[in-house]
Amino acid sequence: MPVRPVRGAAPRPDRRLGAMTGPDAATDPGSAPPPARYRLQCVVHRESASGIIIHDEPIFGLSEDAAVADAKARFAHLLAGRSGSAALRDAAGRVVWSTQQKASAGVPKPL
């Protein structure tokens, strides 16, 4: 005779790897998808012989909104009062966010 689950009992493993079931339909936190990888590509204008700095770095985010928020913060840090442009691309190469900013007046530029 099969045993019926008791209400409020701890979740029990499902037959599928990483899945959990139970009376409260709890899921295994280890089964969350890994963060998606995005590419932040920036061009920052500066006063020097070459005139620009080019940045291309990975951004990891659990959602597109989280990746965009991280990209905005990183771009603001890289600009440091200078002008430049940035684009955030997803794994397929599509632009999911882009911006262009002119230098801020009155903000000291780093040496």
Word description of this protein:
The longest helix is centred in the middle third of the chain and has 16 residues, at 64-79. The chain has one helix at residues 64-79; strands at 12-13, 20-21, 36-45, 52-61, 84-89, 95-101. It is α+β, with helices and mostly antiparallel strands. Strands 4-3-5-6 form a four-stranded antiparallel sheet, covered by helices on one side. A two-stranded antiparallel ribbon has the order 1-2. It has a domain at 36-101. Strand 1 and strand 2 (20-21) form a beta hairpin. Residues 1-35 are annotated as: Disordered. Residues 1-11 have a biased composition (Low complexity).
Please summarize what this structure is.
This protein is of the alpha+beta class and about 110 residues long.
Please supply descriptive tags for the structure shown above.
111 residues, two-stranded antiparallel sheet, 1 helix, 14% helix
